[in-house]
Specification:
Layout (H helix, E strand, L loop, with lengths): L8 E5 L5 H11 L8 H6 L3 E6 L2 E10 L3 E9 L8 H15 L4 E7 L3 H8 L4 E3 L5 E7 L1
Parallel strand pairs: 4-5
Antiparallel strand pairs: 1-2, 2-3, 3-4, 5-7, 6-7
Length: 141
């Protein structure tokens, strides 16, 4: 495959200069964007930026737990959806979990998010039994 046709992604920790763009992506892609404190997540070093070529087109918030890595948020900018960036971010979370010697990656979705749950199961996530109004999914690393 020629180098010019390869999609070039880069995941890196967010810095303060990224916060305005990440806020814009969050406002358009998250129902609870108002409650999301991007500056605090950036200081806690749990917020990672997805760059595609030279633009910031998404972000992921990763929280290490005892034996797994929780994907707290995964957001792709509207204009970058449908191009594989979300799946790539899931793979990045898996590699990050391996680097921390964790055994799984977890994510929660609202019960009514059938499309999101289907998308995750197609990428190797399985539903875990749990009560409440959220669906808990995990994928071994």
């Amino acid at each position: 495959m020629p180098v010019s046709s390869r999609i070039e992604h880069r995941l890196r920790p967010a810095d303060r200069n990224d916060l305005p763009r990440l806020g814009e992506i969050a406002r358009h892609g998250l129902a609870d964007a108002v409650a999301l404190d991007l500056a605090a997540l950036q200081k806690e070093e749990t917020l990672f930026v997805a760059e595609w070529r030279t633009a910031i087109d998404g972000f992921i918030v990763l929280l290490p737990l005892q034996s797994s890595l929780l994907i707290s948020r995964l957001v792709v900018a509207e204009e970058a959806r449908g191009q594989g960036l979300g799946a790539w971010l899931l793979d990045c979370a898996t590699f990050h979990a391996r680097g921390l010697d964790l055994v799984a990656v977890e994510i929660q979705r609202p019960e009514q998010d059938a499309a999101g749950i289907t998308w995750l199961t197609k990428r190797g996530f399985v539903r875990n039994p749990h009560g409440g109004n959220k669906v808990y999914l995990s994928r071994n690393v």
